[in-house]
C-alpha cells in the first residue's frame, strides 16, 4: 500500500454547521455559514493526541490492535490506520473527512480500545470480522477545524500536469468569512473527490465537474482512503461494509415529531445502477447491494431504539434519492460494499464540546449495532424493507 508503514516496538505494533436554515451536507458542499462562535474544541482529540492514544491502545492490546501510517495529508500529517480482528468480513470505518465533524474519532478510539481487550465478547468479534479504521482521515482540516483540506489548485496541477489550463474542481474553496478562512488557505471538500473507478486518473475534460458526477482522487487524503480500500480488496476480495462518520446542522427533527435528531443515517447515495436512472453506472450493477446497505442501516436504527428515547433514540433517515458518486459512500457502494452514513447532530461551530460525551456514546452504540449484527449473523436476516419505515429527517427553519 502506498506510503504505508508499521511502527513496532518489542513486537507490538505501536506508534512512537450551520445554526441558520439547515443544509444537507451530502447533497451539496457548502462549508457552512454559522453565526460567529467561540466554542472551544480543545476537548476533542487533535492530531498529536490521536497518535499517542493509538500508540497506547496498540500497546495495551498486546499486538491485537495494529496501527500503521496509511498515508499523509497534503501538509504531511500522518493518516493513521488501525486494524483489529482476523475475520473474513471487513468493516472499514472512517471519521473526520470533514475536519469540524469530530465525534466519530473518539467513538472509533473507544471501540478499538474494547476490541483489543481479552473479553470473550471482543474475542468473538475479532474472530468474525476484521475491523479497519481511519480515525481522522483529513487531519489538516481537523487542525483548522473546518470542512475542507489545506491544498491549492496549483498544488493539484503540480501533481497532475495534465490539468494545466483546466478549471478548478467545483468543490474548491477560496473565500473568507468570519468563520472559515479559505482565502489564505484554500482547500477541497475531500468527500467529493472519490470515483467508483478506483483506478481513475484525473483528466482535464472531467473538470470542474459537479455534485452528480464522480470525483477525481486529486487530494492525498482521498487517495489514501482509496489505497486502503484497494489493499483490502486485494487481501480479502471484498470490503463487506464501509461506514462514514459525519455531522450535520444541529436543528433537525424526526419527521412528525418535535424530537431533535441525535443523528440521521442512510444507505442510499447513488441511483440503483440496474435502473434507468442509474445507467451511468450500469457496469457496477453486479456488485451493488442496496438491500445489504438497508439491512445495515436497520441494524443501527434497531440498536439505537433499543436504548430508549432521547438522547439516544431519536434516529432518522437522511434525505433520500441522492446522486453522489463523488462521495466515498457512493463510490464504495458501487464497488460492492454495504454502506452506512452517520450524520451526527451539530458541528464544532454549532456545539463545540456541548453534549460531546452523549453524541460519542450514541455513535458507538450505533456502530455496535453493525458490528454485533455482522458478528452473530443477525444483520443478514433483517428484512431490508424495514428501512423504508425509518422516519425521515425534517429540517427546522
UniProtKB/TrEMBL annotation:
Keyword Hydrolase listed: yes
Lineage, top ranks: Bacteria, Bacillati, Bacillota, Bacilli, Bacillales
Similarity field: Belongs to the peptidase M14 family.
Pfam family, one: Peptidase_M14
Single GO term (MF): zinc ion binding
Keyword terms: Carboxypeptidase, Hydrolase, Metalloprotease, Protease, Signal, Zinc
Annotated protein name in UniProt: M14 family zinc carboxypeptidase
Family matches, as InterPro entries: Peptidase_M14
Gene source species: Peribacillus castrilensis
Essential cofactor(s): Zn(2+)
Top-level taxon of the source organism: Bacteria
Amino acid at each position: 500500500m502506498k506510503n504505508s508503514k508499521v511502527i513496532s516496538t518489542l513486537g507490538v505494533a505501536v506508534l512512537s454547521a450551520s445554526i441558520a436554515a439547515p443544509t444537507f451536507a451530502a447533497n451539496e458542499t457548502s462549508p457552512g455559514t454559522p453565526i460567529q462562535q467561540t466554542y472551544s474544541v480543545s476537548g476533542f482529540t487533535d492530531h498529536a493526541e490521536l497518535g499517542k492514544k493509538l500508540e497506547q491502545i496498540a500497546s495495551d492490546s498486546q499486538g491485537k490492535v495494529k496501527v500503521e501510517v496509511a498515508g499523509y495529508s497534503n501538509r504531511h500529517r500522518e493518516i493513521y490506520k488501525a486494524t483489529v480482528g482476523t475475520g473474513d468480513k471487513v468493516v472499514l470505518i472512517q471519521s473526520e473527512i470533514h475536519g469540524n465533524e469530530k465525534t466519530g474519532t473518539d467513538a472509533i478510539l473507544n471501540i478499538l480500545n474494547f476490541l483489543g481487550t481479552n473479553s470473550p465478547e471482543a474475542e468473538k468479534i475479532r474472530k468474525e470480522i476484521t475491523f479497519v479504521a481511519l480515525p481522522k482521515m483529513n487531519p489538516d482540516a481537523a487542525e483548522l477545524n473546518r470542512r475542507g483540506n489545506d491544498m491549492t489548485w496549483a498544488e493539484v496541477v503540480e501533481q497532475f500536469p495534465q490539468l494545466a489550463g483546466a478549471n478548478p474542481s467545483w468543490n474548491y474553496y477560496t473565500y473568507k468569512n468570519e468563520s472559515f478562512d479559505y482565502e489564505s488557505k484554500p482547500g477541497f471538500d475531500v468527500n467529493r473527490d472519490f470515483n467508483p473507478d478506483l483506478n481513475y486518473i484525473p483528466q482535464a475534460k472531467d473538470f470542474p465537474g459537479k455534485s452528480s458526477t464522480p470525483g477525481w482522487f486529486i487530494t492525498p487524503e482521498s487517495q489514501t482512503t482509496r489505497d486502503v480500500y484497494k489493499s483490502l480488496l486485494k487481501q480479502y476480495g471484498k470490503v463487506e461494509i464501509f461506514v462514514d462518520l459525519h455531522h450535520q446542522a444541529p436543528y433537525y427533527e424526526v419527521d412528525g415529531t418535535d424530537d431533535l435528531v441525535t443523528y440521521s443515517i442512510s444507505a442510499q447515495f447513488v441511483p440503483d445502477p440496474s435502473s434507468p436512472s442509474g445507467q451511468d453506472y450500469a457496469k457496477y450493477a453486479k456488485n451493488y447491494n442496496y438491500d445489504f446497505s438497508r439491512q445495515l442501516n436497520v441494524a443501527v436504527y434497531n440498536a439505537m431504539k433499543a436504548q430508549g428515547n432521547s438522547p439516544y433514540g431519536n434516529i432518522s433517515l437522511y434525505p433520500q434519492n441522492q446522486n453522489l458518486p463523488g462521495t466515498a459512500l457512493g463510490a464504495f457502494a458501487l464497488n460492492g460494499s454495504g454502506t452506512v452514513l452517520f450524520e451526527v447532530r451539530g458541528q464544532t461551530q454549532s456545539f463545540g464540546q456541548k453534549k460531546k460525551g452523549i453524541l460519542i456514546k450514541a455513535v458507538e452504540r450505533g456502530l455496535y449495532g453493525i458490528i454485533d449484527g455482522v458478528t452473530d449473523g443477525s444483520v443478514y436476516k433483517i428484512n431490508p424493507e424495514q428501512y423504508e419505515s425509518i422516519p425521515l429527517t425534517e429540517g427546522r427553519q
